[in-house]
């Protein structure tokens, strides 16, 4: 099997989380993940997700976020890799069609910096997730930017021969930016 195919699940999980800061009132402008394959970085995304995010700068602790990601909408620019990613060893999209991220914000001591605290449910497993989220006022609303990291094997993304982290790294980085 082509080594690039092994990177599929790692990529897909990153994208799942990268979409978590998008909202029903916000247009996603950038939603990417970075994963490693044989020590080299690569990127990809998800094309379908539903989101609900409420934010009031006067009451950031009241903010709520929920993102439902269609795991079958994984894309990486390689059709063969994309097909493998939705298969049973990676996202198992036929059995686990949706990944869910939900949580709230906590203010920090840094201006316009918040901490997202919540959970991610992927392949039937629920794990805590926390990451910094920067929210800044723009002339038309808000700009949201963040980065999260997680380990794909915590969610059984990449089973069997794909658990070898020397081929596909375990940690994935999700980056996102969008405006409201």
Structure description:
There is one protein chain. By secondary structure, the protein is mostly beta strands. The chain has one domain (3-179): Lipocalin (Beta Barrel), CATH 2.40.128. Helix content is 13%, strand content 47%. It has 2 helices and 10 strands. It has a 10-stranded antiparallel beta sheet, with helices on one face. The longest helix has 16 residues, at 3-18. The radius of gyration is 16 Å and the shape is elongated. 38% of the residues are buried. Residues 25-179 form the Lipid/polyisoprenoid-binding YceI-like domain. This is Lipid/polyisoprenoid-binding YceI-like domain-containing protein. It holds the Pfam family YceI.
Strand-helix topology:
Layout: H1 3-18, E1 27-37, E2 40-46, E3 49-54, E4 64-70, E5 74-75, H2 79-85, E6 98-107, E7 113-122, E8 125-137, E9 142-151, E10 171-179
Antiparallel strand pairs: 1-2, 1-10, 2-5, 3-4, 4-6, 6-7, 7-8, 8-9, 9-10
The count of domains is 1
Q: Please, how many helices?
A: 2
Global outline: elongated
Per CATH, the superfamily is: Lipid/polyisoprenoid-binding, YceI-like
CATH class: Mainly Beta
Termini separation (Å)? Answer: 43 Å
Give the SSE string. HEEEEEHEEEEE
Which class do the helix and strand fractions yield? mainly beta
Number of separate strands: 10
DSSP helix fraction = 10-25%
What Rg is obtained from the alpha carbons, in whole angstroms?
A: 16 Å
Strand-residue fraction?
over 45%
CATH level 3 topology: Lipocalin
In round numbers, the mean pLDDT is 81
Sheet with the most strands: spatial strand order: 3-4-6-7-8-9-10-1-2-5
CATH second-level architecture: Beta Barrel
Which residues form runs of ≥5 with pLDDT under 50?
3-26
Strand count, sense and barrel status of the largest sheet are: 10 strands, antiparallel
Assembly state here?
A: single chain
């Amino acid at each position: 099997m082509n080594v690039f195919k092994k990177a599929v699940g790692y990529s897909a999980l990153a994208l799942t989380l990268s979409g978590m800061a998008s909202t029903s009132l916000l247009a996603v402008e950038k939603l990417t993940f970075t994963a490693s394959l044989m020590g080299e970085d690569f990127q990809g995304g998800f094309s379908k997700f539903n989101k609900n995010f409420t934010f009031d700068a006067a009451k950031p602790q009241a903010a709520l976020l929920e993102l439902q990601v269609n795991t079958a909408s994984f894309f990486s620019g390689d059709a063969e890799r994309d097909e493998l990613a939705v298969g049973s060893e990676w996202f198992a999209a036929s059995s686990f069609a949706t990944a869910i991220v939900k949580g709230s914000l906590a203010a920090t001591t840094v201006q316009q910096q918040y901490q997202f605290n919540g959970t991610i449910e992927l392949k039937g497993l629920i794990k805590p997730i926390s990451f910094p989220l920067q929210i800044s006022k723009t002339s038309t609303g808000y700009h949201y930017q963040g980065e999260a990291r997680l380990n794909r094997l915590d969610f059984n993304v990449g089973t069997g021969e794909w658990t070898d982290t020397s081929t596909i790294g375990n940690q994935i980085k999700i980056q996102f930016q969008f405006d409201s």
